[in-house]
Structure formats: structure tokens, C-alpha cells
Known about the structure:
alpha/beta
Amino acid sequence: MINKKEEWEKFGYVWTKRKDSPKIPSIKELKIHQANFRSVFKNKKNLNWLVLGSTPELRDLGLRLGCHVTYVDQSLDMITKMNKLVSIKKRDKEIMVKSSWLNAPLLENHYHFIVGDVTLNNLDYPGYKKMFLVMQRFLAKGGYISLKEAVIPDDFQRNTFEQNLAICHQGKMSLNDLYLRCRFITWLDQCYNKNTKQNKPRAIFANFRQLRKKKIITAKEFQKLYKNYNLISHTILTKTEFLKRLKKHFKLVSIKQADSDRYDFYPLKIFLAKVKK
């Protein structure tokens, strides 16, 4: 993976503040995952639900849908923190596996549904490509993936930071959405390595400091944007390359917006695909 386990543990506080973090699954996104599941499995119970990571909302959703839930995370610290955030108390149908995703000791041809919240983005480029094959191996015949991932559009008109800030000031975009656009889209030219396919978190937060120094953003806005400070890198592919990798092992069923495209391209999309067996 790109990020060492120590980095996740150091900056994990960003993910534990569920009300403030822009990275957690929203109610809308959870409804999309639920609709994806029910569109293919209807009301079947006792299916095997695999979560890439320890995201409490995705684990709870699987249990609510009557599934046997397995979740895989390499950081015991993150697992401990996320376990404090689950809402369902009875968890006898849940199994934890402490491992990296690429080398997880999971049963092959076993899981019916794999879900993840910005997961492949946390792998380096070689691992990103390999993960599609790994998921194919874990899935049972007729299994599906429902993944929220950040992708780069191949051709679009990108708003500047100032344009998006003006939309924020109009009350039409949250500062959390502004942060996500900066992280994944707005500053691609400055903060993206085309060779490794990774963004540069140090450069992203350095930009925020410069904007505060130039008084383009207020001290209050800076504090809200900077609360997301972390040095976790992300691998981001163009939408075309992402689909090319996915279609080697899966049949694409749908792509749904994690949020609105009202202002400019929103980077997070939820992909539903059926495994090829």
C-alpha cells in the first residue's frame, strides 16, 4: 500500500470524527450501496458481505441487510477506533481479519458482495491494478462489488479554487466538498504525480496555508479546511483507465454519483459491477 500503517494510525483521528469528516459514507451513499445490493439480491439473507477496511457504517449496513459480515483492515489501531463507532450492538455475524487487502487470508469464491469507501485509492498503482484480480478471486459466482472511488474525468471544465469558494459563500457548497475538490480535482496540475498516479498531500495543505496568508480565505475557513490535515497519499486514475482495469475482471452495471455534479465534476463515484467467472 502507499501509506504505511503508522501514517494511518497517526492521522486516523480525521476518520474518527464522523460528524465532521468529509470522507465518511453519507446517508445518500449508504442508500446507494443498499439499493445496489437489493437490486441484485432482493431480500435474500445470510449472504456473505465483505468490507475493505473497518468502516463502521458499511459493516452496520451489511448486518442490517441480514448478511454475514467480514471486514479487513491492516491497522489494529484503526480497527479499535472504528469499533467504538458502530451502532449495532449484536455482532455475532461479524468477523474481523487483520491484514492488508492484497494478502488477506480470505476464502476464495465465497463472498457475494464487496463494499468499500475510497479503498482502491489507498493502494499504490501496482496494488491498485492487482486488487481487481484479488476481489475477483474472493467473490462467489454471481458476486458483485459496490465501491466508492475517486476518479479523474477525462475531459471537463474544471472550476478554480476561487470559483468554488464563491459557490461556498453563496451557501451552495460546503467547505467539506470544497476540500474534496481541492484534494482530488482542483489542484491536479500542482499536486498530482502523473507517473505514480498519486496526489501530494503536503502540497495540498501548503496551498491552504498560502491562501490564508494571502487572505483569500478567512481564519475560520482555514481552520475548517485544515482540520482534515493528513499526509495520506491517494492513487487516482482517470475514469477511462479505472473502467479499463475494472472490465478485465467485472461487468459494469452502474455508476452513481456520490454527490451532485451541479458545480463541476465531483470526484467520488459508486461503481456497481458483477464478477466475471
